[in-house]
Amino acid sequence: MSARLHTPSVPSVPGAPDRPKRRRGRVLSAVAALAVLGGGLAVSGSLAYGSPGDSGHRDAVGRGAEDLVREDGFPAALAAVEDRDGRVRDYTAGTGDLETGAAVPVNGQVRAGSNTKSLTAAVVLQLVGEGKVKLDEPIETYLPGLVRGDGIDGSRITVRNLLQHTSGLPDYVQSLGMDPFEIRDTYYNPRDVLDLALSQGAAFEPGAKWQYSNTNYVLAGLLVEKVTGRPFGEEITNRIIEPLGLTDTYWPSTGERGLRGEHPKGYAAAAPGAPLKDITRLDPSQAWAAGQLVTTPRDLNRFFSALLDGEVLGAAELKEMTTTVPVTEGAPAPGTGYGLGLFSTPLSCGTELYGHGGSIHGYETYGGATKDGRAATVATTALSSSVAADPEDIVAAHQHVYDLVDTAVCQ
């Protein structure tokens, strides 16, 4: 079994390592934030990778995608890699539909999961640049009386705390339940999930430490709606998606459960060790401004590259977004930091990757861009927690997604 490389009008890249390292390690809390424990089965396929003249570089990325399918058990993997000159290489491996055996569509649409947070933060920071929001103003100023609970006081939690994950607000995700198939068709109003979080009480004092919480970004979405007077999906579309020409990216309409464009099917397991089942059709409102977006690997690369190039934010706001605090749990590499909706992760080649990651039932992604113009995104069609039952195997599978991004950018 092997991966297929798709390279329209792209010359060979000289030199190459043998294959990406397959190491175990800890994983990004953010990437797994919408994941629940599950199990799955390995899938095999028969695709050919590379083409005459392909270099070892491409083979390394292709074999890495193949390994995600063959060794980790993801039904499919797809990736987009962009070099400093803007040349793009697309990769696919595995099977796009376990029932029919259909091929994985090149640059197919996937659910972005928590990558959405980077776009949400960018919208908030645009409002900061317009003088409509202040980063160090309490959320109480904008959403009076809303953020209340045991030990929770919105007058002590700033907008920066929310975007930086230093608010002390608990995460609502675990309150949704463990079986994804039980909630796949449930519509959640943003206030519904916020109530789930606030009923838990504070996790810690605002600013005391970093701890990932999807609740922060639900509040960020509500902030945008209050300040602009418009639906959040409209703001993210008008401010980010359309100006950047992200033609394969969209904000699902209320109640929309399918994917509009060409896509590989997404899979999940009801419990550890259970068979994988199709969960492509899903109401993503459970994630809303924290993870509802639909996109493609190429579009994610385009967004993160444009962000670093100054196409999305003013210089002052971009500096705020890329100024990080240490990630104290779940980091994929020593030195990982979190800014405002953005991870900064050291890569093996000595540069920093600015990006995010996302997990929502059926799809897992990770990627980002570097300041010198490189970008890579890898997506799989199941969560790590759906293709493995043993906790160590879940962590390892998750790390392998990150490792492949490192390989794609660095080698």
List keywords for this structure.
411 residues, alpha+beta, nine-stranded antiparallel beta sheet, two-stranded antiparallel sheet
Tell me about this structure.
The chain contains 12 helices and 15 strands. The model is unreliable at 7-58 (pLDDT under 50). Strand 5 (148-149) and strand 6 form a beta hairpin. The protein has helices at residues 56-70, 116-129, 139-142, 159-164, 180-183, 190-198, 215-228, 232-241, 297-308, 315-322, 384-387, 391-410; strands at 4-6, 76-82, 88-94, 110-111, 148-149, 152-153, 267-268, 277-278, 294-295, 325-326, 337-338, 343-346, 352-360, 363-369, 375-380. Helix content is 29%, strand content 14%. The chain has a 9-stranded antiparallel beta sheet, with helices on both faces. The chain has 411 residues and is an alpha+beta fold.
Layout of strands and helices, then pairs:
Blueprint: E1 4-6, H1 56-70, E2 76-82, E3 88-94, E4 110-111, H2 116-129, H3 139-142, E5 148-149, E6 152-153, H4 159-164, H5 180-183, H6 190-198, H7 215-228, H8 232-241, E7 267-268, E8 277-278, E9 294-295, H9 297-308, H10 315-322, E10 325-326, E11 337-338, E12 343-346, E13 352-360, E14 363-369, E15 375-380, H11 384-387, H12 391-410
Antiparallel strand pairs: 1-3, 2-3, 2-15, 4-9, 5-6, 7-8, 10-11, 11-12, 12-13, 13-14, 14-15
Helix pairs in contact: 1-12, 2-7, 2-8, 2-10, 6-7
